[in-house]
Amino acid sequence: MAKKIVLIEDPPLKTCVGCRTCELACSFEHDETFNPKKSRIRIARKGPAISYLVVCVQCLKAPCMEACPTKAIVRDPKTNAVVVREDLCNGCGACIPSCPFNAIFMHPEKNIAIKCDLCGGRPACIKYCPQRVLRYAEQGG
Amino acid sequence: MPFKYSGYTGKYLRVDLIRGKVSEVPTEEWRASRYLGGNGFGTKILWDEVPAGTDPFSPENRLIFATGSLTGTIWPTAGRLEVIGKSPLTGIYGDANSGGHFAPELKYAGYDMIIFQGRSDRPVYLWVEDDNAELRDASHLWGKTTWETERAIHRDHDDDQIKVASIGPAGENKVRFASIMTSGRAAARTGQGAIMGDKKLKCIAARGTKDVNVASDEFYEYAYKIHQQILANEYTPNTSRYGTPGLVTLMNEIGRFPTKNFQRGDFEHANEISAEVIERDFLVKRTGCFACPIGCGRAAEVRKGPYKGTYTEGVEYETINALGARAWNRDMASILKGDLLCDSYGLDTISTGGGIAFAIECFENGIITKKDTGGLELKWGDPEVVLQLIEKIARREGIGNVLAEGVRMAAQKFGKGADYYAIHVKGMETSAQDPRAQQSYILAHITSTRGADHLKGFPCIDESGYVDAAVERYGRQYLPEIVDGVSTKYKPMVVKDGEELGAIADSAIVCKFGTQFPPCYYWPELAKGISLATGMKLDVAELKKIGERIYNLQRCFNVREGISRKDDTQPKRILVESGSGRAKGYSAGPLQDPMLDEYYELRKWDKKTGWPTRAKLEELDLKDVTDALEKIGRLPES
Q1: Where are the beta strands (DSSP E) in B485-536?
Q2: pTM for this structure?
Q3: Who among B209, B224, B294 is closest to A108 (CB)?
Q4: Residue to test with chain B: of A17, A28, A110, A133, most B Cβ within 10 A
Q5: Cβ contact B231–A49 (<8 Å)
C-alpha cells in the first residue's frame, strides 16, 4: 500500500509552528549535513503565522515520472514511493515544472533532482517533528 | 584549507561603510576555541576595536551580527542571532539576541559573522548570498517599517524565503532603544537598531544553499535526545501552549509583576491580560523559531473593537507587562496594537514601556505638564496614551524626542526629582521582574553587563521553586533557601553560574528556553553537543572557563568605560520602597550590598571597586586585558 507524508493539524494549538526541524533531519538523513536546500521536505514561511508544507504526495499516477526523459524516476517496490535514481538522472530539470505540488527540487551541488523517498519507510522528518503534526498516512486516505 | 573546527563556515565579513567595501576574512582558530561564537565573538571585537569613550553614534563604533557554533544545525533552538555593539542607550557594552530564522540563513550563505564599521553617507543594505556579499542602495527602503522592508526585499529579489534583519523608522531616527527585527522577532535591547540607523544600514538580506557540517555523526542522534529531553520536561507543554504570556498570572500571584512603574508587583486586572485571554480572544496559531521543539511564539489578531485588524507576531510576557501593567493598561487589544507598532517601527517594547510609565508618573507629579506633552494628558490606564507615545517616540516628535533618549537621559532633562521615577540600571530600563519578589534579581539586574536585564544571569530556579533542577544543578545542601524567592541566600552563586551559562548559550547560540527555563539541559549536555558539532574537546570545566572569560571581558569593557561598584545598583525606588505579594516588607536596600560582596568574592573581583583582579584575568588567559587596564589605573591593588 502506498503511503505519504501529511500534516495533520488542529489550529490554533496543534499545528506546524514552522520550526523546520524536519528540513534539517531530512538533509542529514540524505546528505549527512545540515542544509535546508538539500532537504526533500520544505516548510515555507510567510508573515507572522503562515507556514506551509511542501512535500511529495507520492502521486499514484505521477507526472514527474512521465516527464522524465531518462526514466530516472521510478517507484520504490518496498514503499511504493516515487523515487529518483541518481545514477539515471541527468539533471535536466524536466520533472520540476511537471509537479503540481512544487515538491521536486534541484540538489544545490550534485546535478540531480531530489524529492521525498519516504526514507525507505521510516521517514526522519516524522521521527524528529517536535509538534508531532507530520504523520505517515495511507495514500488516498 | 578547510577550517579546523566543524560547525563554522570558517570565514566572516568585514564591511567598511565609509568606503563601501566588503572584505572576506578567514575565521581565526583562536577566535573559535577561546570565544566560541556569537556573544563571545562580538565581545572580543568590541574590546579590541572600540576604545574607551567612543561615541556609540560614530563611525568608530562596531556593529556585529554573529552566528554561533551550533547555528544552523538541528540542535534544539539553534536558530538564534546575536547582535553586539557599544550601546547608545547605556554608553557601555551592548548586545541583543533574537530568535527566528535569520542567523541560520546567514550561515548557509557562508558566513560566521559580519562586522560593520564606519558610516555610509546614503542608505544601504547588505545582500548576502552563497559566499558573496555586496552593499546595495536602500534609498527606496528608507522610511519603511520593518514588515514593509521585508516585503520589499522579497519583491525586489523575487524570493519570499529570503531572511531579512531590518530597522524601522525608530532605528533610522536613532531612538536609543531601537530594535532590529527579523519577521516579527526582535533583537531589541540596548539600541542596536539605533547603531544600524546611525550607520545608514537599513537591513541585511540573506539567502544561502551551503552546508553546515558537524564533526561527528553522533551529533545527530545526541541532538535528538536533547530534543526529547526538552519535550519530556514537565514545564514544556505549558511553555508551548501559552508561550511567555503564561507567566503573567504566575508572576502576578507572587508580586513579581511590575505595575504602575514598579510602584507595585501585582496588577488587579492581570486576569484581563493573561495568556488565557490571548488564547480565547486573539490567538491565530502557535509559531516557532528555527529548530525549536517548544514553539513558544504565537500569531495573534484583534478581531473587533477600535484595534480591529491588528495582526502581530507575539505578544510576549515582557511586552504585556511593559505596555500593560506598567502603565496600568488593562486593554489586551491595545497591547497587541502596541506590540505591532513597536515591531513595525523597530522599538524595544521593554524600554518603550519603561519610558511611557516613567512619563505618566512624571506627569502625575507635575514634573511635566500638558505644555511638555503637546496637550496630551498622560494618565494611568489609558490605552491611547500608550499608543500615542509609541508613535511620538518612534518619530521623535515633541515629548517623544525626549523619551527616545531613554529614561535616564529623559530624567536629567526633566529635572525636579524625575530621576526617582526612572527605573533603570546603568541606563537600561528594567525588565519585568520585580526583584523584591524574586531576590536573585536584585543582583542579576545590577551585575548584568548590559544594564537592567533578566537574560544575563536569568536565575530561574527561585522564581516559583524549581526544586528538582536546583538539586540536580547545585546539590541538595542548598535547599530550601536556594529555591525561595524571598531569600538572598546562595543567589550570588546562582547568578554567577547563570551569567556564564548564558554567555555560552549566547555564543553557541541557543535559546535560554531549555538551558534555564524550563531547566531541561545544562553544562554537560552543552559541552557534549558543542564538542560533537565542532570537534573541540570541551569538558564542562573548559566550557565554563570560556563562559567566564566572555563575561569577564564584558565587565572589563565596562570598567574601561568607567563602570565600577557604584554603578552596580538598583534604582532608588527598588532600594527604599517595599514590594507587594510575597515581597511585602522587602526593599532591596538592605539586601543589595551583602549580595554584591558575596558575588564579587565568588568572581574574584575587588570588593571596593568591582574591578576584576589580575589573578582572575590571568587565570582566564586575559593577560593583555590586564595590562591594558593597569595602564589606565583600573586594576585593583591586590
Answers
A1: none
A2: 0.98
A3: B209
A4: A17
A5: no
